[in-house]
Amino acid sequence: MTAVTADTQEAYEAVFDAAVAADERIEPRDWMPDAYRATLVRQIAQHAHSEIIGMQPEANWITRAPSLRRKAILMAKVQDEAGHGLYLYSAAETLGTSRDELLDKLHTGRQKYSSIFNYPTLTWADVGAIGWLVDGAAITNQVPLCRCSYGPYARAMVRICKEESFHQRQGYESLLALSRGTPEQHAMAQDAVNRWWWPSLMMFGPPDDESSHSAQSMAWKIKRHSNDELRQRFVDICVPQAETLGLTLPDPDLRWNEERGHYDFGPIDWTEFWDVLKGNGPCNEQRITQRRRAHEEGAWVREAAAAYAAKHGEATA
Amino acid sequence: MTATASSAAALALGDDALVLSHRLGEWAGHAPVLEEEVALANIALDLLGQARVLLSLVGDEDELAYLREERAFRNVQLVEQPNGDFAHTIARQLYFSTYQRMLYGRLATAGDGGGELTGLAAKAVKEVAYHQDHAEQWTLRLGDGTAESHERMQRACTALWRFTGELFQPVAGLDVDWQELESDWLASVTGVLERATLTVPDGPRSGAWAAGAGRQGLHTESFGRMLAEMQHLHRSHPGASW
């Protein structure tokens, strides 16, 4: 392979910049800056890991779901999440990494997943609150990613967002049933919303002035909106939905601001956010231990499949 | 066929599907590879769908699932067996889905013989064919994979063998040649185990104590604990809707 000279490097960069400026999609075989590739691998991997770890808090309730209909909905949702993880690992692999490598980074704590999944699901209503708030926040974050400059990621997001919207409606509907149910069910729903509201707002990431990757990601059109913009959009959507649900949001400062045309809301506890991100949330240890254990205890199964494939001349996955 | 006989059959087959679906649901988040998270959940969902149709033929699906005591469940003991390792889950699935595929296949073509179950069987037979294929493919891989996987698969096949006789206890209301079903099942399972380089277990497939036990509401010890978990929330809120 010939060395890339300074001139050709500049020429490649110019083509890349022009494609991004024209809202064209960057595809796996196109030239891209190393830092663009690294940012995408980090972001897509973290997204994939979040789908996989995110199965745990909800799977926690599969065996206790209170009706067969809700049990079927929850099982289908957790299954979809595994599927989303698979799409996303495939998208990351187009950038020259492998699922094994990424899973290894997850298991050794070198790559992160969304901090929201470090909170416990303590009652059945948490499953509904996760659907409404956590999936709602994810959708607000992810819909703009359908227009992300990297083609494989954008296409994965189109498929994922369709399924996520469905889950979000089901979560909302489940909370509505609780809110309109017995006083005990209503209280269970309110308690869940009280516990999940602030962590959901934290899903948009640190405030704009503390977000280290934001400016570059926006210039590359990986991100389309700032963390604070998306967070505001989410709050504006949720307030009327909470009213329809007959539930309150646990923020005494929440009120309509006529001048801004948005809801004002209270300060987020960033100390808690950084604490959870650093591994000190309520379930960080438990989540990663379960993931590692599933992987380690499954090693003999994967080895068996590989040995069988080798004996019978099949291609291994 | 009388209504009672039909209900008894729907309850027996519905309980089988409900209980096995629940066991497979316990795998969520614990599977050895992501593709198996998808596959096991997929099978669990198919079975839950079958259970809902079958139980609804008998009464209210949630009352039947959540408010019956252990002694009123009519599932075979095989499906309530704990998941164990992946090999146990696969052996249980191989034994059961081979049975289910053959039984549904017969009911689907039985015309009036299957009664209300004919329609369900015709739809479900496609699902259970997939389940059987999945179990068979894994039986081959584990049996003919590494020394460790071979040993684990052999242990699982042997351990669950004694629960397979019950599958062929006649179910009231199902017009099926049970002896023929049993010999077809044995031939199919034997073929798969041999291809997987496994030894076909030679122990009894049921003792006098176990013959038809699950179908009469006599279950194994772990079943009560499974039901306690499954029913707890529903029972804590009598009359609530979800």
Commentary on this structure:
A two-stranded antiparallel sheet of chain A has the order 1-2. With 317 residues, chain A is mostly helical. Chain A has helices at 6-21, 34-53, 55-59, 68-93, 99-107, 125-142, 151-179, 183-202, 214-219, 227-245, 270-280, 284-297, 299-311, and strands at residues 255-257, 262-264. Helix content of chain B is 65%, strand content 0%. Chain B has 9 helices and no strands. The interface between A and B is large, with 51 and 49 residues.
Number of E-state strands of chain B: 0
How much strand of chain A?
under 5%
What's the story with the biggest beta sheet of chain B? none
| Shape descriptor of chain B | globular
CATH architecture of chain A: Up-down Bundle
Task: Please indicate the count of domains of chain A.
Answer: 1
Helix content of chain A: 55-70%
Structural class of chain A: mainly alpha
Report the β-strand fraction of chain B as a percent range: under 5%
The sequence of SSEs of chain A as H and E is HHHHHHHHHHEEHHH
List keywords for this structure.
heterodimer, A: 317 residues, mainly alpha, Ferritin, two-stranded antiparallel ribbon, 13 helices, 65% helix, B: 242 residues, 9 helices
Task: Lay out the secondary structure.
The complex is a heterodimer of chains A (317) and B (242).
Chain A: H1 6-21, H2 34-53, H3 55-59, H4 68-93, H5 99-107, H6 125-142, H7 151-179, H8 183-202, H9 214-219, H10 227-245, E1 255-257, E2 262-264, H11 270-280, H12 284-297, H13 299-311
Chain B: H1 3-25, H2 34-58, H3 61-66, H4 77-80, H5 86-108, H6 117-143, H7 147-161, H8 178-195, H9 221-236
Helix pairs in contact in B: 1-2, 2-6, 5-6, 5-7, 5-8, 6-7
